[in-house]
Design brief:
alpha/beta, Rossmann fold, seven-stranded parallel sheet, 22 helices, 21 strands, binds adenosine monophosphate, DEAD/DEAH box helicase, nucleotide-binding, hydrolase activity, helicase, hydrolase
Length: about 600
Amino acid sequence: MNPFLELGIREEVVNAISELGFEKPSEIQEKAIPVLLTGNDDFVGLAQTGTGKTAAFGLPLLEQLDFSQKQPQALILCPTRELCLQISKDLEKFAKYIDNVHVVAVYGGANISDQLRQIRRGVQIVVATPGRMLDIIGRNAIDFSQVKYVVLDEADEMLNMGFKEDINDILSETPDDKKTWLFSATMPKEVRRIAQNYMTDPVEMTVGTKNTGNANIDHQYYLIRAKDKYAAFKRIVDSNPEIFGIVFCRTKIETQEIAEALIKDGYNADALHGDLSQQQRDKVMKRYRDRSLQLLIATDVAARGIDVNNITHVINFSLPDEIENYTHRSGRTARAGKTGISISLINIKEQSKIRQLEKVIGKTFERKQVPQGPEVVEKQLLTIINKVQNVEVNEDQINQFLPAIMEGFESLSKEDIVKRFASLEFNRFLEYYNNAPDLNIDGRDTRDGRDRDRGERGPRTGSKGYTRLFMNLGAVDEFSRGDMLGFICNNAKISGKSIGKIDMKGVFTFFEVQDEEVNKVFEGFKAVDFNGRQVRIEVSGDSQSDRGGRSRGGDRRSGGYGGGERRERGGYGGGDRRSGGYGGGERRDRGGNNGGFRDFSGKRRESKGKY
Ligand code: AMP
């Protein structure tokens, strides 16, 4: 007998979920469904995303609602539009063979009239994000008097996103005798308080141990200097040619800049963050789901509720501020019983955070070495060989050209042909990784968290009489140092003699300016645009002359780079609060080589006019 039937799920639903590939209940389903099917209890379930919790509450709901009535009987609140759509689509799939089931997804950023129309036509299940739900309640457009079940999904996320008041207001619109089912990946005090305030003697259950991440996730970290972060990240990606990953950053601007740098370097990457319009976000997500994007660079908030299967790697380009967010991030991989890898790129000072994560998650994080150039090249080569071996040959089509092909290769031995094919792909690659430096910090054990690496310690200061400034353009924008000098002098209308050291990185540059000329630089760059990007100048937070930090243009909210990040919120106990920024791309010694080894089109990027 089908185990879902045994749990008490009706045949129509079992047929529908069998088509979705559900053969046996997941742990949370096995534990929660019997309790929720009684309909008698409030419920608290601690479960990560990806554990099958949508069906854990969705299947019992389908058993208990009266679909001959057309009034809302279940309300599901969740933090994001993506999750809202996902849940409503899942429920519709589960209910495929039940008649008259009407589910509405109510979320912001979409036309409210359509949602109101659906509600007017009659629905039994409302899946909503809190903001839009309140809006609709405020219009008196919905009647919750018949609601029997309220589900709070990803409750911790909803609270993180500031929906506490909204949830209170919405719950007060629902009948007192309803049952409340709360799901959360973590159980911070605030969630506990909601459970206390709104539930009576809830049945509690945990899948795995509290705060424990998915057992199928391998947690790894790389210890590198902050300035080598981007280069190390690229090596990790290059040594995993089949990667399909999400890269987490802490700020919108960081996601944007890393995505831009990656795109310039020829990767299939794009950014997902809150400053994008809904349309832009949908577009990015569609490309990611379709796998035309290999790397999605996202902030924590933007990535909430993303339910994409088969993500191979989660990369913490910057560790999250809140320890809970690490569990959320890593939970994006290893879904539905698959395995996955969660990678953190850290500097020496962040080692204590890893130790803390290990304690909370109850798993050891494996330290990995950033691959050396030749290892990366070998990995890529093997992938190509594999591809060549597995490529489907269309005999009919190719046959007609075969004589010409054979003739063209007549003078070459098999070995020569192999070498040449490989070189087609690899000349750029070999050149890029030729003499690539070792990016690992010495193998010393720094488990005590003490900073023994003088090179990473303390910020670099500007020379006396000079102020060190940050600019969001760098080597990836195809500036040489001379170009950069000209660019600064022309815009600021100052002489080259006023400029001190110029320290060009991958996606940004630090440069020194004589103190008395600093204002001219800010004035000159007030409204300068480079290839559609606003040029941003900031005082580097470690400057001798001005530790306060100033910024013109661009987005300030995220704080600066290079040690200038100012954060009010406490992070992990004892950890260094500064992100350290990401310090530039792999050094590009051969001027103009953009590291474009992935840009196999053979197109030279056009040199852009600079000033
Ligand atoms: P969720 O945690 O509800 O987002 O589910 C994560 C993924 O697991 C989704 O793709 C579900 O379709 C899938 N899933 C849920 N329950 C099962 C099950 N019992 N067997 C196989 N796949 C499942």
